[in-house]
Amino acid sequence: MFKVLIAEDEPLIRKGIIYCTDWARLNCGIPLEASNGEEALAEMERVQPDLVIADLMMPVMDGYALTEQIRQSY
Q1: Are 26 and 14 in contact (CB under 8 A)?
Q2: At 40, is the secondary structure helix, strand, or coil?
Q3: Contact 28, 51 (CB under 8 A)
Q4: φ, ψ at 47 (rounded to 5°)
Q5: Strand order of the sheet with strand 4-7?
Q6: Average pLDDT for residues 1-21, to the nearest whole number?
């Protein structure tokens, strides 16, 4: 089963992605959540997800910077 992390600063969009996707059919567990790139990096270190779905425009650290950090670290 794949581990998924969703990084999205808008709670309604984040919850919408989680609740409107049939994660079991995709062989994924219930996704972990982060509201910005820094939270996503902390979750990455803790859980090491297989897939990250990230918003590009987030406060604190945007999706572009998050992607760069992931590429450098993982």
Answers
A1: no
A2: helix
A3: yes
A4: -110, -25
A5: 32-34, 4-7, 51-54
A6: 97
pTM over 0.85: yes
pLDDT for position 74: 80
Task: State which amino acid sits at residue 65.
Answer: A
Residue 2 phi, psi (nearest 5)? -80, 145
Distance CA 38, CA 33 (A): 12
Taking alpha carbons only, the member of 45, 50, 12, 46 closest to residue 31 is 50
Structure tokens at 73: 């670290």
- E-strand spans in 1-74? 4-7, 32-34, 51-54
Residues 34 and 43: their CA atoms lie apart, in Å, by 8
Q: How far is it, in rounded angstroms, from Cα 31 to Cα 57?
A: 20
Largest CA distance in the chain: 33
